[in-house]
Amino acid sequence: MTEPKITQLQPLPDDWQRALAVVAHPDDLEYGCSAAIAAWTDAGREVAYVLATRGEAGIDTLDPAVCGPLREREQRASAAAVGVTTVEFLDHRDGVIEYGLALRRDIAAAIRRHRPELVLTLNHRDTWGGVAWNTPDHVAVGRATLDAAADAGNRWIFPELAEQGLEPWNGVRRVAVAGSSSPTHAVDATPGLERAVRSLLEHRTYIEALTKQDPETYVRDFLTASTQGAAERFGGKPAVAFEVFSR
Ligand SMILES: [Zn+2]
To answer: Whole-structure pTM over 0.85, yes or no?
Structure first.
């Protein structure tokens, strides 16, 4: 018997200057990606966030009218913890985001505004692996982001965007999907891990509603386990793993 060979993850290329992260909800980036983002902003790279919703349907005990503004504030603080100051909201409705032309158009417009070479998003697949079902919001936003990376470069798909002054941007070279069960690449999580903990901890209202555990213990345990999970395929180093689609 021979041990099954474990395929190693490749280092995510760093030949880029601007990244745009597009996700459905406040906390989607902090539950996994933000250690990588902290390392990138340290290195002088620009990263901006676009969120499809304000996460207003995320806390059972809070009315969406109260929850939305609160989670927006928490998201801005969590972005600042990893060096990100641009956070935009597309105002789709939390929990019922529809995959379709409106979403593709909004994300294509964001890509044209920010002109990134790297686009990040969260798992667009039906599951997190095995039988852990994903949510329809993540699937819709992930798929629409992969599509919009191409839409942004085509003048004729959403011609109204150019009429609004948003010229085509065909410079997205990769879309990196976090939380995928089929990762291909990774980023060393060690330098950014402490700020990633601070960043996730900024979602305090959400976390306190989610668990009875001490928030800092919960956050540290979660991020340590998730980055350690990728280590055996990344030379033993804790890592943030991505499934990368090149363009
Ligand atoms: Zn989410």
So the answer is: yes
